[in-house]
């Protein structure tokens, strides 16, 4: 793992505080734990702070959460710097593209997606595009292996990508739009391309197409023929 450091002072905000809505959520989250174990809420609070602050964590937010949880600053810094899901530097204002580079995605074309990011955003990861709207990085498994290759942008995933469809996703973000998350090739979830190939029948207790609502039973098994040899024979 590379060394992870806080952003330079010149980009750090002077202060941080949760919005009223996020503060209420934070207090409710802390209340789920015993008073002596409220430090257990540190990860969800850091994540909410990151979402509020343009998807990166400033020093002021880390210290703010440490104060909320009565934790030493260094302990919260340890959490924020250990987990790579926390961004410690400013990211693209419109999209921070996380390209999955683990084996299934790599075999399915992740390297071609990285080439698109290098040409569209910056030649190196963790750098902002010229207009500050985009940034990118390569990450470990993002959990959508069956829809490889894929990317994650903030909290959404875009799957079954090709270089061409990734270009379209980036174009949409550039226009200020939010493209529809999920498969980008027409698949429904993780079904095969073209639709499901099995399990076409209704579930056992589902209403029939006629709408009578009657459950359907599996056909009864036939008794063996009288002259059929027995197992003992």
Report on this structure.
Helices cover 30% and strands 9% of the residues. It has 233 residues and is an alpha/beta fold. Among the domains are: 9-82, Arc Repressor Mutant, subunit A; 95-183, Glutaredoxin (3-Layer(aba) Sandwich). Strands 2-1-3-4-5 form a 5-stranded mixed sheet, with helices on one face. Helix 2 runs antiparallel to helix 3 (59-68) and helix 3 (59-68) crosses helix 4 (73-82).
Brief description of this entry?
30% of the residues lie in helices and 9% in strands. The protein has 233 residues and is α/β, with parallel strands linked by helices.
- Average per-residue pLDDT, rounded, comes to 90
What percentage of residues falls in helices of 4 or more residues? 25-40%
CATH architecture of the domain at 95-183: 3-Layer(aba) Sandwich
- Extended strand count: 5
Number of DSSP helices? 7
- Spatial strand sequence of the major β-sheet: 2-1-3-4-5
Write down the Rg: 25 Å
Beta percentage is 5-15%
Distance between the termini: 67 Å
| Quaternary organisation | single chain
Principal-axis shape: globular
Look at the helices and sheets and give the structural class: alpha/beta
Order of helices and strands: HHHHEHHEEEHE
How would a crystallographer describe the biggest sheet?
5 strands, mixed
What is the CATH level 1 assignment of the domain at 95-183? Answer: Alpha Beta
CATH topology of the domain at 95-183: Glutaredoxin
CATH superfamily of the domain at 95-183: Glutaredoxin
Low-pLDDT sequence parts: none
């Amino acid at each position: 793992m590379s060394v992870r450091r806080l952003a330079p002072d010149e980009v750090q905000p002077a202060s941080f505080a949760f919005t009223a809505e996020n503060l209420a959520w934070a207090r409710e989250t802390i209340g789920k734990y015993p008073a002596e174990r409220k430090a257990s809420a540190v990860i969800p609070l850091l994540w909410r702070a990151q979402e509020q602050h343009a998807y990166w964590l400033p020093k002021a937010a880390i210290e703010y959460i440490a104060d909320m949880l009565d934790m030493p600053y260094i302990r919260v810094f340890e959490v924020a710097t250990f987990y790579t899901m926390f961004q410690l530097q400013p990211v693209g204002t419109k999209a921070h593209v996380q390209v999955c580079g683990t084996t299934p995605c790599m075999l399915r074309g992740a390297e071609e997606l990285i080439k698109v990011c290098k040409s569209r955003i910056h030649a190196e990861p963790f750098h902002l595009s010229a207009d500050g709207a985009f940034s990118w990085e390569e990450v470990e498994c993002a959990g959508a292996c069956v829809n490889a290759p894929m990317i994650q942008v903030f909290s959404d995933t875009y799957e079954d990508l090709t270089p061409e469809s990734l270009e379209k996703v980036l174009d949409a973000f550039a226009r200020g739009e939010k493209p529809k998350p999920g498969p980008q090739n027409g698949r429904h979830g993780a079904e095969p391309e073209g639709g499901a190939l099995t399990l076409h029948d209704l579930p056992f207790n589902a209403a029939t197409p006629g709408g009578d609502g009657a459950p359907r039973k599996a056909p009864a098994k036939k008794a063996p023929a009288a002259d059929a040899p027995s197992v003992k024979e």
